[in-house]
Amino acid sequence: MDVDRLRQDAAAVLADGRARMVIGFRDRAGDRVPAFITDAEQAGELLYDEACRQNLAAYLKKAELKRFRPVAIVARPAVMRSLVLLAAEAQVADEDVLVLGVSDDQEYHGILDLAATAALLNEKYAEMPHDPDLVKRIEEISAMTPEERSGFWTEQFARCTRCYACRAACPMCYCTQCIVEKNVPQWISTAAAGHGNYAWNIIRAFHLAGRCTECGACEAACPQGIPLMLLNVVLARDVEEEFGVKVGYDAEAEPVIGSWREDDNEDFIR
Amino acid sequence: MKLIDANKLTALAAALARAGYRVVAPVEDSGVVRLKEWAEGAAIRTGAVPVNSAKDFLFPPSEIIGRWDLDGDDFMPRDVQPDAPKTVLLAVRPCDAAALALLDTVFNWDYKDDFYNARRQAVTVVPMVCTAADEQCFCTSVGGAPDATAGADAMLRPADGGTRFILEPLTDKGNALLDAAGLALAEGEAAADPPVEIARRFDVEAVTEWLSRNFESDLWPALSLACLGCGACAYACPTCHCFDIQDEATRRESVRLKNWDSCGFGLFTLHAGGHNPRPDQTARWRNRVMHKFSYIPERFALVGCTGCGRCARVCGAGMSMSEVCRLIADETKKAPTHES
What we know:
The complex is a heterodimer. Chain A is α/β, with parallel strands linked by helices.
């Protein structure tokens, strides 16, 4: 990828005040870790390659970073979708964010505002194919009996330590009080075991149905290797099939989870 | 000396299991190498530092420490004993064993924790000398070493170019373990491989000294920018020992739980009245560094970090304790500014 252009653009938006901070990636002994650049002269630290997988849109929810808005965020297509969706959910305004766009195959898209980001997504990334291995595993799990499937997830969730790294990594997990923090009374079991683990992971997946842009950051952040994307992709697919909505392409779209229609085919909601 | 071929560790595990030990060892599970109870047929993976630490088997993520039967307005306490089977922690790391000095101290400091102590007494610790390290390893910066024996009952020493291990007993528990291993071990001679060299990255005493006078510093926001506030580092840490007590009940039964907790969470210090003395991630991360490198050294004359590097390996946001300590140590080397 043309990292020099990324660095030049980062320096330019800092120098002319279009952004007060650029959030991108830097190298640390071979690891790709976030870089928070506020001085145009430090833009040379930035780099980008296929190892840069963290969803940096998650930093928009961090209180200490709000004073650095507008921020420019280095974003691949799934991360761009997070940003458009955050705008649709009224979590960021157009003037808060710039995108330094990069494709999954290392093409640099330049400096984009949210409208240009949505236009680019619709033009070039309307279809984002899934990893074939993931699709195969989803098919295998879908073919299981309900008992087998429940057993599979019970085994996966048994490893959860309730560290909430999945929640921290996710830009859409911005609730100021998460359900696991509702402790007067405690809504779901706090024990890192059994039904509490099941409840936490399933509730989180359902709360992201129609909100997950499939960036994979939660699964990558899970120290226990729980395959969270198997849940997220199935739910995203269901939302697409049932509601005809693919999220993160339209900043004006009403959120699926926060809207209703008079012609809904379910009685209870009309 | 007692020897075992490098590819026969599972035979040692099997012999110890037959002798009545619960064997905990690094095994691959869902693509991740983790310390877990070894079962017949599982390969023991010594090549990677496991994602979890040995503390899981002394201080588990969730433990029931009280139980009551409920019947209308009546409640009847039931006896709860620690689940503390005789256990060997096999092929753990010197940085796991080094953590025991601190865990033993904090769980017996102002209150003697029967649950921890029962498990601790039932455990035989057998670390493996490290002959390889990765970018996150920094034991030598915090007083440890890849061949340190602190906290160990016996050491597994790679020998003859990694083809076998010398099993060297260090305590009575270690001797008992060697007896229990019986014919799984051979008598013979072997040359121990040199431990890996790990360069010191920072002067830990300089870090502690800087922390003692920099609770308020402009450096903290910069040091903590990347942190998104989960508990992955604390839960992977061999020395983090904070827990939360929760009561959970159904109509028939109530249990008292001792759950891991993390100072990375906002809820950790949230007061009932709504005030939070650590209102943001900057304050929470500062506490994490202060606790390990200032409060623990001050209170117990120990360092609260063994340099295992697990926190940095598991962090989804690229935070690194060794990098933060190095930046702090660098700060102490800067020429002092003379303010009038």
